[in-house]
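Thread: Newbie trying to understand structure tokens

Hi all, I'm a second-year student working on a class project, and my supervisor (Dr. K.) asked me to get a predicted structure for one chain before our next meeting. I've only ever worked with sequences, so writing a 3D structure as a token string is new to me. If someone could post the tokens and maybe explain what I'm looking at, I'd be very grateful. Here's the chain:
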Amino acid sequence: MIKKKLFAGMIFVCMAIPAIAQKNVIDEIIWVVGDEAILRSDVENQRLYMQNEGIRFEGDPYCFIPEQIAVQKLFLSQAKVDSIYADEANVLRYVDRWANMTINRIGSQEKFEEYMGGKKLSQIKEDQKRVVRDQQVVEEMKKKIVGEIKLTPSDVRKYFSQLSQDSLPMVPSTVEVEIVTLEPRIPLEDIDIIKERLRTFTEQINRGEMTFAALAAIYSEDEASAMQGGVTGFMSKIEMAPEYANAAFNLNDPSRISNIVETEYGYHIIQLIEKRGDRLNSRHILLRPKVSDQEIAKAIARLDTLYTDINAEKLTFYDAATVFSSDKDTRNNKGLMVNQDMESNNYGTSKFEMQELPQGMGVVVEKMEVGEISRPFHMKNNSQKDVVAIVRLKSRVKAHQANVSDDYQALKVLVEDRKKEELLNAWILSKQKTTFLRIADGWRACDFRYPGWIKE
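---
Reply by user tm_fold:
Sure, no problem. This is what the structure looks like when written as tokens:
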């Protein structure tokens, strides 16, 4: 139902997921940065969180962690001077998603609250908002300090020439794939059965026999939201399938259930929980008609005929994708797939690492030669629908160490990141000189990354 980078930051964006603080430890101020204190408990909570999450420490955690917190406080202090503030809508959106994902991982809201030391979900979210708000301000402050990095091709080539062979980054193997898909036919009677089940759910809810949350937990095929009684969390229209958004935002009464809504994911009924401006929290129950093995076999047979005609040069793969494919995202793109994974370095391009390909496709593409067309196969598309497909491997780039001729863009990003790091490091060293700094005895014997913390 959700279309699917939130801003990236330092590891401390997640400080509000603490392991519960040690009750027998006497808290104390261990660092002072300007007019901000860093407590022993701040460091200990972060250490335990990183340990529980398997995050590697860079050296002694009692040196590394307080220094990272201190760096963040330098940025926050300057942000106050420069009047830089967080975007509250983004903060709320991030925290809602974080809470929903964490509850899904732990199993229930009650277990989550227990894990967080008995705090209520509302208080957990408030704590996390403060952390995320600070982190967003830090990121905006960094952007202001760095400004716009302008690099010429000669800058990139010069940087590349200075790197030793061992320090060159590895570029993972990628492929470009063209696709033609057919959706197996679903008999109208099967769709009617799904709709009748959803109407029955609505009647049970309206009669008070079952709650929406209970039915969603038992029957909804959206596994992520079903674990929370169908709750999706706050989202804007652009984060929802269009049909779902239209129905959900037209609801005004939380006691009413929407009519049945068809999206690319299946069939839904929706219940409003709360609206906040352009964002909405809802519950839904999703059901998908099951595709029979017989219909899958028929679709494979139709595509097999198409496969034969393409190889006999009766039509091109491009013609097949344009005229016959049911994949709306690639139909007008000569069948060429575009990477929609926002967490991928290849987002928005036609390049995919093998694990980024849709479920069922990777094992087929892995064995193909460039230019080869596959026989029809059954797979799940990005909407988790059953489809059959043929694919053509347009290109394959094997994993290799980066070079200027093949990987200029990747190296350009690497140089930009290095330039940004140099500018930020210089700023931190300068800011240390003009900021009041004090470190308690017992916390000073460290090999700090930035040597200006201790002023003698």
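A couple of things are worth pointing out once you decode it. The chain is about 45% helix and 15% strand. Residues 404-433 form the longest helix (30 residues). Feel free to ask follow-ups in this thread.
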